[in-house]
Amino acid sequence: MATAGLWGMASDKIGRKPVYFAAFFFMSLGLYLYSFATEFWILIMYRLIFALGASAAAAMLTSVLADYVVTEDKGTASGFMGLFTGCGALFAAIILLQMPSWFTDSLGEDQAVTLMFMFSASLALFSGIVDFFFFFLKKFLILIFNFFFYFFYFQFSYFINFF
After folding, report:
1. 6-24 b/e with 16+ CB inside 10 Å = b?
2. Distance from C-alpha of 34 to C-alpha of 44, rounded to nearest angstrom
3. Count helices and strands in the chain by DSSP H and E runs
4. What distance in Å separates the CA atoms of residue 24 and residue 92, rounded to the nearest whole number?
5. d(CA 86, CA 30)
6. Nearest Cα to 4, choosing from 19, 14, 21, 17?
7. Fewer CB within 10 Å: C terminus or N terminus of the chain?
8. Can you tell me the mean pLDDT for 116-137?
9. CA–CA dist 36, 15 (Å, integer)
10. Are 59 and 8 in contact (CB under 8 A)?
11. Can you tell me the distance from the alpha carbon of 36 to that of 78, in angstroms, rounded to the nearest whole number?
12. Mean pLDDT of all residues belonging to the chain
């Protein structure tokens, strides 16, 4: 979170769209690299890459909420933020963290865990691409999409610490 202010300044200079894409790209890259860590310090380095993206996403989510949600809908938007925090936690716990157990018999434990990280990285990259191309639609649906994926990755990164 130490870099959130820097991301905010960058978005003021170059725009929200490229910073939001960079956020999901760094989260995707961090998740992808997790499965290749061979030592603890390397995992910490990959975790820092993920955290860089999470910090940018947090800064952009706040900016997008302020920029695109009209005053009358801010309460609704905040409610959706809370809803999708829970949805992200459930999706991470029920689907992603269970993936290795579903594929351990056919792939082996290491490959099943790698599959989980690759799938998660793909979702993060998909999120960034959707944001990049549809960011300026200014529709409530895109804001909801951002809430879901940001909070999903926030919760997933929290649960991953216990895996």
Report:
1. ebbebbeeeebbebbbbbb
2. 9
3. 7, 0
4. 17
5. 23
6. 19
7. N
8. 77
9. 33
10. yes
11. 37
12. 77
